[in-house]
Amino acid sequence: MTFKKGESGNAAGRPKGRKNKSTVLRSKYGALVWEKLFELAMDGDPVALRLIADRVIPKLKPQYQTVCLPETANAKEFCEFVLRELAAGHMAPDVARSLVETIAAYAAVTDLADVMERIAELESGEFDRILAKRIPNPPAGTYGTEPKRKIKRVRFNK
């Protein structure tokens, strides 16, 4: 069913120019409601205080702040720097929390990358080269000083 041009789909609906019920109620009783709410708030009603505070005082939004971080690769030093700046009042608490969470996530990713690199080196079978890189002069009797023997590598199909 198509509508004719200029004709409403609901002929029995609200006529043009008529105000909404909530608008009528707000204009008629709005001032009385606010007066009663202020009266209750002045008497110490916590619900009334909360309603007024929600309307009058806007909620705080997260702050964006430019931060100059020290040039270090150590996550612990980054976190210590953030805590010092927070304690000195140079950084907002939400910014500090966000930075520490970001640093922790970065540290977890770099740790995982290091582990994956070590696993790849170990799977390549070049144990002597790996040990020489990690321990330049291993003491006698440690792994890597005994005679070389053939290592059988086993691969599992995925």
List keywords for this structure.
2 domains, 158 residues, mainly alpha, 0% strand
Helical region count? 5
How large is the share of residues in beta strands?
under 5%
Q: Biggest sheet, in brief?
A: none
Computed CA radius of gyration, to the nearest angstrom: 35 Å
Domain count: the total is: 2
**Separation of termini?**
60 Å
Order of helices and strands: HHHHH
Estimated helix fraction:
40-55%
Could you say which structural class the secondary elements and strand pairing correspond to?
A: mainly alpha
Query: How many beta strands in the DSSP annotation?
Result: 0
- Global outline: elongated
Mean pLDDT score: 79
Low-confidence stretches: none
Topology:
Layout: H1 21-42, H2 46-56, H3 75-88, H4 93-123, H5 127-134
Structural description of this entry:
With 158 residues, the chain is mostly helical. The protein has two domains: 21-56, no CATH class; 67-158, no CATH class. The protein contains five helices and no strands. Helix 1 (21-42) crosses helix 2 (46-56) and helix 3 (75-88) runs antiparallel to helix 4 (93-123). The longest helix has 31 residues, at 93-123.
In short:
The chain is mostly helical and 158 residues long. It has five helices and no strands.
